[in-house]
Amino acid sequence: MSDGLSEIGRRSLSTGGSSVELILSEIPFFSVGLLGFGVMTFLLAMKKVNLLSVFLYASILLSFSGGILDLSQILTRGTANVDRGQGADSVRGIINTREVVFAFSVGLRFMFYWTLVGTCPRSERKPRNRNTQPPPSSDDSNLHSASWNRWGIQGLVLKYISLLLVILIPILQIVWRVSPQQSFSTTYIAESAIGIVLSTTFILKLLLNVYLSPRKPWWLQFRSYLAPIACW
């Protein structure tokens, strides 16, 4: 919900706020984006890229791109027009593109967490010997502590319902971000409610993963989830 409120504030700044305030609001996106570039380059060089890192850093880089678009619309309008709240219509295409980019950034962040809560913890991964054949696959071998399959049909239903809601998040975000200021409230409330439900579900799933983990003591496994939970 806090992300949505900050984006409402960003919309008002974009159309009628101080240029200094708007530029200052972009600093977190620029900072995290530059850090994301560095980390992603390192992961590519070390060949450590996986699906989780792709979702996470794609989200970061999209938010960085949104900040660049925001800065470009300020430069196009001029600081005087931005301070007076004028000239927004002349850069409406840039503003709408920025909003779509931010929407996909939020969607990829939720996709990162959806993938994370079902990913086998590193402590439960069996090392592979390149000189030997991998063991035959079985249903039991995939039932790690984070697996949705542990819960049977209920787990699979929850898994794919949450996936559908994750896909719905950026769609609703695009709708309320590019809609007129006076007509986006219903869509925004629906998107915020879905975001709260998904966030609660994912946090509970991470805590459940810790409870089911064979790694003892429990706080060793919780430590690996501490950063994602804290950054929510």
From TrEMBL:
Disordered: annotated span: 122-143
Key words of the record: Membrane, Transmembrane, Transmembrane helix
Keyword Transmembrane helix: yes
Membrane-spanning segments: 22-44, 51-69, 100-120, 157-176, 188-208
Entry protein name: Uncharacterized protein
Organism in which the protein naturally occurs: Pleurotus ostreatus (strain PC15) (Oyster mushroom)
Taxon lineage: Eukaryota, Fungi, Dikarya, Basidiomycota, Agaricomycotina
